[in-house]
Amino acid sequence: MNFSEIHNWLRESDDRRLEKLWRTADDVRRRNVGDEVHLRGLTEFSNHCVRRCAYCGLGAHNSGLEHYRMNADEILACAGRAVELGYGTIVLQSGQDSGVSGQWLADVIERIRRQTPLAVTLGVGERNAEEFALWRQAGADRYLLRFETSDRALYERIHPDLDGVRSDRIAILHQLRELGYEGGSGVMIGLPGQTYETLARDIELFGELDLDMIGSGPFIPSPHTPSARSDEKQVPNSEIMSYKVIALTRIICPQANIPATTAVATLNGQAGYELGLQRGANVIMPNITPPRYRALYDIYPAKAGVEQDEDYHSLLKERILAIGRRVGAGRGDSPNYINRRHANKEAATCAR
Ligand code: SAM
User: Fold this and answer.
1) Residue 313: what pLDDT?
2) How far apart are the CA of 25 and the centre of ligand 1, in A?
3) Which of 32, 206, 212, 310 gives the lowest tally of CB atoms within 10 Å of its CB?
4) Atom 18, ligand 1: which residue's CA is nearest?
5) Domains of the chain (ranges plus CATH)?
6) Is the C-alpha dihedral spanning 104, 107, 111, 112 positive or negative?
7) Which residues line ligand 1 (CB under 6 A)?
């Protein structure tokens, strides 16, 4: 699918034609990543953040936020909970927290890998090359870093540099790949200033970067942030636009792991997850952060998962079965990554 086809689909409003997009994406999903839905235990372990991203409620401009940082034992308890629930991965996510040292996080990763069979995914922002290498050595498997938008001018407006260091998330994604991480990225849908052309280019770029995981979700205005006050024109930050992005991403990156994200569920609850899964997604990241911290990870209001109770996890599994899918077993590495590693090994063997 080329740029203008992606662009036309993003503008499509005829329900019958959109049915065709959903069917195609679902078919590509089934043939490439199968019927399993992989569940990742999302642990939001710190809401401290040194950045001032215009869109995010954790940004340093939100002076009213009550801060927390979980200790290592609390994080290990979440890993234990993920194992109990039958999940194959723990996702450690946080603001860009300068109070989290490279070594401290490396020790936590090492403990999780030693004590559990879980794969470890990190999403802790733009850290330095030594830290990425240290965490990989400690056993981290995957790294999530959204490039947020492919429009450099828009990116610079919403994601200011820090201490004079130019933020270049695309360069970091290349670094992570070199280190052998499974690399994940994504964008927000309907950011003020985002055009249909930009969003089509975002999706095209997913393919060019050969990403292993791609998570995109609607921009949800957060009251304490500059983006919430913007009146710039934008692509709709709607549920339907989010499904279009999921479906097109699946067609462009058939073997990537693609979540139905929390932001989609924030717009339409469990149905948001299910429609995402039926339109190209194969991953859900249920929140396993201890309830007392969950509401404080306040990137935007009314975030899905904050209020969920203990029954939630078994209900989720029932719903997955009810739409004719299976709950994924094991780590659920992305076929895109597995095939790349395999091809690299073969190339190395041939070169010998
Ligand atoms: N600090 C890490 C980072 O920047 O990658 C991870 C945490 S950050 C809160 C995770 C993602 O939340 C961001 O990449 C961004 O796409 C998303 N996000 C932040 N504010 C949002 C908003 N108002 N609406 C939708 N998504 C948002």
Assistant:
1) 87
2) 25
3) 310
4) 56
5) 3-351 (3.20.20.70)
6) positive
7) 55-56, 58, 93, 95-96, 123-125, 145-146, 148, 188, 217, 219-220, 222, 263, 299-300
**Res 39: pLDDT:** 97
Using H for helix, E for strand and C for coil, what is the string for the chain?
CCHHHHHHHHHCCCHHHHHHHHHHHHHHHHHHHCCEEEEEEEEEEECCCCCCCCCCCCCCCCCCCCCCECCHHHHHHHHHHHHHCCCCEEEEEECCCCCCCHHHHHHHHHHHHHHCCCEEEEECCCCCHHHHHHHHHHCCCEEECCCECCCHHHHHHHCCCECCECCCHHHHHHHHHHCCCEEEECEEECCCCCCHHHHHHHHHHHHHCCCCEECCEECCCCCCCHHHHCCCCCCCCCHHHHHHHHHHHHHHCCCCECECCHHHHHHHHHHHHHHHHHCCCCEECCECCCHHHHCCCCCCCCCCCCCCCCCHHHHHHHHHHHCCCEECCCCCCCHHHHHHHHHHHHHHHHHC
Give every residue of the chain whose pLDDT is below 50, as ranges: none
pLDDT for 97 equals 97
Torsion sign (Cα): 262, 266, 269, 275 = negative
Q: What local confidence, expressed as pLDDT, does residue 79 receive?
A: 98
The reply to whether the predicted model has a pTM over 0.85 is: yes
- The closest alpha carbon to 88, from 335, 332, 337, belongs to 332
The residue contributing the CA closest to ligand 1 atom 3 is: 125
Report pLDDT for 306: 83
Alpha-carbon span 284 to 276, nearest angstrom: 10
Atom of ligand 1 nearest to the CA of 221: 23
Distance of CA 200 to the CA centre of its chain: 19
Asked if residues 287 and 42 have their Cβ atoms less than 8 Å apart, the reply is yes
